[in-house]
Recover the amino acids of this structure.
């Protein structure tokens, strides 16, 4: 159990400390992941950027993810959940979430330019993985930017999601993999309040945009 996202971010930063002052770009998934991303980026003395992907919720339960959409329109879905849904409904839902992703990028980053990650190490941070669909969309988005390697780092993840994500990245850091996942990331936090747009904007303003470093050591593994 984590007290809140800040504590989880500090503990995640400790697990990644070997990357300090290396050519790393930390990417956070808004909104909750930004709180952790700030802690990780500060500890590693690395720049922080955002990957704005959006969950596609089930038509009968919006909080339950059946898919996710990246900013280029790439859609990741759970085929078991989407098999009985109208494809046109999925496309409309994805289009709506894509519009929201672009709105959020404009709000969160204003005129801030993307951090150059080509030939660097990309570390993607979120507050946890349930279905992992938004993280898969984020990995797709990052790969297009040409990093030398991608690492996903989270405080908690469902065991089956760890198995799904591991083959897609060069490194996976998960602080806690429960034997029986409760079904919601917030179940592993004492305080898990919604993070507002304004909080994300303020957090991003507090971070420098570009920091350089030395060449990274090769690392691959699951913590």
């Amino acid at each position: 159990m984590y007290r809140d996202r800040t504590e989880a971010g500090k503990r995640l930063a400790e697990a990644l400390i070997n990357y300090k002052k290396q050519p790393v770009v930390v990417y956070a998934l808004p909104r909750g992941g930004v709180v952790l991303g700030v802690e990780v980026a500060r500890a590693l003395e690395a720049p922080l950027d955002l990957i704005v992907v959006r969950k596609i919720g089930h038509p009968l339960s919006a909080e339950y993810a059946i898919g996710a959409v990246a900013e280029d329109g790439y859609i990741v879905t759970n085929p078991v959940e989407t098999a009985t849904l109208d494809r046109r409904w999925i496309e409309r839902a994805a289009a709506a979430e894509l519009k929201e992703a672009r709105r959020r990028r404009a709000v969160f980053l204003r005129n801030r330019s993307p951090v150059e990650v080509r030939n660097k190490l990309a570390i993607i941070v979120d507050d946890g993985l349930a279905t992992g669909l938004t993280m898969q969309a984020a990995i797709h988005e990052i790969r297009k930017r040409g990093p030398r390697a991608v690492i996903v780092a989270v405080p908690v993840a469902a065991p089956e999601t760890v198995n799904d994500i591991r083959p897609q990245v060069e490194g996976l850091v998960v602080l806690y993999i429960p034997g029986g996942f409760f079904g919601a990331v917030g179940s592993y936090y004492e305080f898990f309040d919604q993070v507002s747009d304004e909080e994300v904007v303020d957090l991003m303003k507090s971070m420098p945009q570009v920091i350089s470093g030395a060449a990274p050591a090769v690392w691959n593994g699951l913590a």
